[in-house]
Amino acid sequence: MSRSDFPPGYDDSRLLSNPQPGGGYPASAPPYGFGAYGGQPPYPQPNDPYRGQPPQPNDPYRGQPPQPNDPYRGQPAGYPPPSLPVIPVIPSGLGDDEGFTTTDGFESTSVRHSFIRKVYLILSAQLLVTAAVVAVFTFVEPVGVYVRKNPAIYWVSYAIYFVTHIVLVCCKGPRRRFPWNLILLAIFTLALSFMTGNIASYYSTKAVFLALGITVVVCVAVTVFCFQTKVDFTKCAGFFTILGIVVFVTGIITVIVLSFKYVPWLHMLYAAIGAIAFTLFLAYHTQLLIGNRKLSISPEEYVFAALSLYVDIVQIFLFLLQIIGFAER
Fold this sequence. Notes:
Elements: H1 10-17, E1 100-101, H2 109-139, H3 141-149, H4 151-170, H5 172-176, H6 180-200, H7 205-228, H8 237-260, H9 264-290, E2 296-297, H10 302-328
Antiparallel strand pairs: 1-2
């Protein structure tokens, strides 16, 4: 290949655009493509860690002639190379914008165990707080009497519960951003604990303990079943959506009817539907937590996972409390 086949170097291009007096090329112009820098003049440039260094034996580029399609070789010294686009690498199995994934969201057993352990630690703290508040409302009679005489306190706690619940479920930013996610979860837990204690104050101590015991048995049985069974509840996401709508509509109808006239069988029917529905919800959310199913919760959504399990357990307790309290009458 002749010398004219290669693009001009730095000195030649400078002379072509701004010829020097006397014309021609300087006698000291370096040979093209055969120097220690692959077509670059062997002059050290500032902030260049490679200039001024001898060719390395294992460097496949040093000492090679410039290639026609190589955007770096044959450029003037110090010419900045074109910036390459940064392509983000998303690990397989991580959750999407909604916090769910259709594949196994855990790349290793250690990641799965760490996620499950974190969720159940948060859930244990929530249940301990709720149990303590219910115990205060149940065993300290003046507290129960006071909240029953002042229902406005209950509705304030319900408003706080509703707002924090909506924020944690619908807003991904606050739900994933530490420490705001834990702060919102703590406020939500206190509000729901106060509501649960307020409702428990209307029932006898025996009914509260009996409902608590049945709730513990149901939750342990459902959790063990979900860890052992091959049945995939996450495939039935549409069914659980419809079930949630049914429970919500039934609850609205029951509240409207009971506000005008108390119908015992309607109250019992709603309590039975709610207890069964939230037991199924507990199984569904537990399998989302475990992973290795059609759908699973992203490891980043530990607050959402703990929130879902906590609401399911508290709702099971409240519905069982209504059934037992009605049976005692």
